[in-house]
Amino acid sequence: MSGKPRLTYFNGRGRMEPVRWLLAAAGVEFEEKFLETREQYEKLIKDGELMFQQVPLVEIDGMKLVQTRAILSYLAGKYNLYGKDLKERAMIDMYVEGITDLTQMILMFPFSPPDAKEKNLESIKERATSRYFPVFEKVLKQHGQDFLVGNKLSWADVELIEAILAVEEKIPAVLSAFPQLQAFKRRMSNMPTIKKFLQPGSPRKPPPDEHYIENVMKILKM
Amino acid sequence: MAGKPKLHYPSGRGKMESIRWLLAAAGVEFEEEFIEKKEDLEKLRNGGSLLFQQVPLVEIDGMKMVQTRAILSYIAAKYNLYGKDLKERAWIDMYVEGTTDLMGMIMPLPLQPSDTREKNLALIIERATTRYFPVYEKALKDHGHDYLVGNKLSWADIHLLEAILMTEECKPDILSAFPLLQAFKGRISNVPTIKKFLQPGSKRKPPPDEKYIANVRKIFNF
């Protein structure tokens, strides 16, 4: 038992990717166990490893943590990425929840039927450019600081850079009307721990391809 | 300006009900401004009160808080219903995410066509009795305490009671195989603040009826 957090999930982004981002940004090394077959998944359930029979699972500090938000909140708290007091935490939570609503659309996109894909892509673009990105553009403009909350790197900044890059993969010019976010993206991408995570060979996972989707659907019997 | 928290939402359960439960359980009096027509929502949006153009909105401690989880986390921490340390908070978060998933299945039922609704109702009953309730039954059995986490009332207990009552509305004998949850239900319902909330005339909202659903569809345009 190495003492490093251990992540159990499919070998792809899905709901585990924000966890990988947060650990990486905090400079925390971690191990990964990849779910590749239905049998592996059923064994995890049978052995009582998964509180609600679901992954993500993160083993850390003697706990088997499940539920993405619970995992992320714990990590943010542990690694000082959750603000200095209750009010900063509230701001971080609000921002993270908004960003999560956007990234949820991207997460579900590959599972939508082929005839719905074009419409869903339009929805992602519309929501990103008219509901979510304007909020963060305004926040950064108003306080003129490098980070969203409390002039210090927090979970909210890590979620935002992840979301920006994920949306850009689908809509390359999505930041064209958001100069503050463009600068934010550059700044965050150059932070040493994040820069390292963005390089080849890191635990960062590629966007889901058809093979990945098929495998997930097989393992989860979707 | 201290004042009471002010809740903005239609006059029904939806995503605001868990917030009403938590405030009530904490013994916190609050005000409500009901969104009754589309114009009420537009006014909030145009006034810049809604960070992501959505309700729930809770005005509390000088903040205009949105995003249900952010609001609930803030209230839980402020009123000492979030455990004593990071690890207890993680357990509370995990439990709450589970009951959120369960209640999240029940909430959209009235919006669904009757054949989908029947299928989903069966799934809810299956999930409640094989995925969710066994977890809480076991937690109570393992430590033998009155409350889920840290031998003290927390957000997790309040949320579980809400979920139990909501599931019972779907199937009255849903707890038949869960003796400890039956006892838990009795105990938590008798906590003075919660007992008061469960009485007629409190701010607790009834299950949605057709009139409420029709109005909500009009207000939110779906």
TrEMBL record, chain A:
EC number assigned by the record: 2.5.1.18
Annotated keywords: Transferase
SUPFAM superfamilies: GST C-terminal domain-like (SSF47616), Thioredoxin-like (SSF52833)
Pfam families registered for this protein in UniProt: GST_C_3, GST_N
Domain of life: Eukaryota
Domain GST C-terminal per the UniProt entry, residue ranges: 85-209
MF terms (GO), sorted A to Z: glutathione transferase activity
GO biological process, one term: glutathione metabolic process
Domain GST N-terminal: 3-83
UniProt cross-references to Gene3D superfamilies, sorted A to Z: 1.20.1050.10, Glutaredoxin (3.40.30.10)
Family: Belongs to the GST superfamily. Alpha family.
Protein name (record): glutathione transferase
Lineage, uppermost ranks: Eukaryota, Metazoa, Chordata, Craniata, Vertebrata
Gene: Gsta3_1
UniProtKB/TrEMBL annotation, chain B:
Enzyme class, broadest EC rank: transferase
InterPro entries hit by this protein: Glutathione-S-Trfase_C-like (IPR010987), Glutathione-S-Trfase_C_sf (IPR036282), Glutathione_S-Trfase (IPR040079), Glutathione_S-Trfase_N (IPR004045), GST_alpha (IPR003080), GST_C (IPR004046), GST_superfamily (IPR050213), Thioredoxin-like_sf (IPR036249)
GO BP annotation list: glutathione metabolic process; xenobiotic metabolic process
Domain of life: Eukaryota
Gene: Gsta2
Similarity comment: Belongs to the GST superfamily. Alpha family.
The protein's Enzyme Commission number: 2.5.1.18
GST N-terminal domain boundaries: 3-83
Keyword Transferase in record: yes
GO molecular function: glutathione transferase activity
Keyword hit for Transferase: yes
Sorted UniProt keywords: Transferase
Domain GST C-terminal residue range list: 85-209
Protein name: glutathione transferase
